[in-house]
């Protein structure tokens, strides 16, 4: 990766995520492990930020805190204007349900549900009628080129098709924050490219932010900014290829 660049810092009104001085410690006393060591990070609305670095550097811990599934030991975490550190556990559950979408490396599809039913799960959790939820999910799947696979079970789908169902499930409730944990690592180059194109096309919009945790250098080209982590800290934030101006001229 090239030398660190100092991109324009988004203004407060542009921020979807604002992390300040966040630490996370697992265990106590002599056995304690410091996973995060005073992390500062901004993610602007309308951008795709990639979080990169070696295994064990704290990437998944950081995005879990941003998504509200893990509490920091100290520091401030403001997501979509809401201070997660001041929320009760019940309010966090509702916040995630209404505002956060997840795309996982392992898909996490329910084997007994069809593609459309899997994609509809967030709407069913939110209390939608089953028929309406499945119909809405089918619409998203159709946009992802899966209109002829709606009634297929996960074991009847290829890896790339299962990933599309996972993307549909993450987007069906129109979340304002999408968190993707290694979304392409189990895919070949072509399916990885298609996955990132779909995420960029459907998820990167004004008022919505996307964070992608990845080891896959093949997809760096889709990043607006790239934040590099090392030993529980953000070491550099660079302008990504997708935002960088063309060379020459």
Give the distance, in angstroms, between the N- and C-terminal Cα atoms. Answer: 23 Å
Can you tell me the CATH superfamily? P-loop containing nucleotide triphosphate hydrolases
Which overall shape is indicated by the principal axes computed on the Cα atoms? globular
Summed over residues and divided by their number, the pLDDT gives a mean of 88
The CATH class designation is Alpha Beta
Number of domains: 1
**Low-confidence segments, ≥5 residues, pLDDT <50?**
1-13
Q: Please, how many helices?
A: 7
**Helicity level:** 25-40%
Over all CA atoms, what is the radius of gyration? Answer: 18 Å
Sheet with the most strands: spatial strand order? 6-7-8-3-9-10
Pick out its properties.
249 residues; alpha/beta; Rossmann fold; six-stranded mixed beta sheet; four-stranded antiparallel beta sheet; 7 helices; disordered N terminus
Concise summary:
Helix content is 29%, strand content 26%.
What does this structure look like?
By secondary structure, the chain is of the alpha/beta class. The protein has a single domain, classed as Rossmann fold (3-Layer(aba) Sandwich). 29% of the residues lie in helices and 26% in strands. The protein has seven helices and ten strands. The strands form two sheets. Strands 6-7-8-3-9-10 form a six-stranded mixed beta sheet. Strands 2-1-4-5 form a four-stranded antiparallel beta sheet, covered by helices on one side. Helix 6 packs parallel to helix 7. The longest helix is centred in the last third of the chain and has 15 residues. It is globular. The two termini are 23 Å apart.
């Amino acid at each position: 990766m090239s030398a660190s660049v100092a991109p324009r810092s988004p203004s407060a009104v542009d921020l979807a995520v604002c992390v300040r001085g966040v630490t996370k410690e697992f265990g106590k006393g002599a056995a304690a492990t410091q996973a995060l060591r005073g992390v500062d990070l901004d993610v602007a609305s309308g951008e795709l930020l990639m979080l990169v670095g070696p295994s064990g550097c704290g990437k998944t811990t950081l995005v879990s805190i941003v998504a509200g599934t893990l509490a920091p030991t100290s520091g401030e975490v403001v997501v979509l204007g809401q201070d997660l550190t001041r929320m009760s556990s019940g309010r966090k559950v509702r916040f995630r349900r209404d505002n956060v979408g997840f795309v996982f490396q392992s898909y996490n599809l329910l084997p007994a549900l069809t593609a459309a039913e899997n994609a509809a799960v967030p709407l069913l959790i939110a209390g939608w009628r089953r028929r309406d939820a499945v119909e809405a999910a089918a619409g998203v799947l159709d946009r992802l080129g899966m209109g002829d696979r709606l009634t297929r079970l996960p074991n009847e789908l290829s890896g790339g098709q299962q990933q599309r169902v996972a993307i549909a499930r993450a987007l069906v409730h129109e979340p304002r924050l999408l968190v993707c944990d290694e979304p392409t690592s189990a895919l070949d180059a072509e399916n990885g490219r298609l996955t990132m194109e779909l995420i960029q096309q459907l998820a990167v919009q004004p008022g919505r932010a996307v964070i992608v945790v990845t080891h896959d250098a093949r997809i760096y080209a889709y990043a607006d900014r790239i934040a590099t982590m090392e030993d529980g800290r953000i070491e550099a934030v660079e302008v990504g290829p997708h935002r960088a101006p063309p060379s020459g001229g």
